[in-house]
Specification:
Elements (H helix, E strand, L loop, with lengths): L5 H4 L4 H17 L8 H16 L7 H11 L3
């Protein structure tokens, strides 16, 4: 496999760089089961799940959060 430096990617167009990132992500997603969470990460996830079960109405749906983020970036 050829080694690719960050500077090598800068000559690519933005669509090409986006495609590169998507291609890299696809290779990670295929092996997602092999990624091990640390004990700390597991505790964080368990804590958030417990908080959700205690009060499922607290928080916002993803669609609302996304709209809020996008509207802030349209300034």
């Amino acid at each position: 496999m050829k080694t690719l430096a960050v500077t090598d990617t800068l000559v690519l167009s933005i669509p090409e760089r986006i495609q590169l990132v998507e291609d890299i992500w696809d290779t990670i997603a295929v092996e997602a089961d092999s990624v091990e969470l640390t004990e700390e990460e597991k505790k964080i996830i368990d804590g958030r799940l417990k908080a959700y079960h205690q009060n499922p109405d607290l928080g916002s749906p993803w669609e609302d959060v996304f709209k809020k983020i996008v509207s802030k970036n349209e300034i």
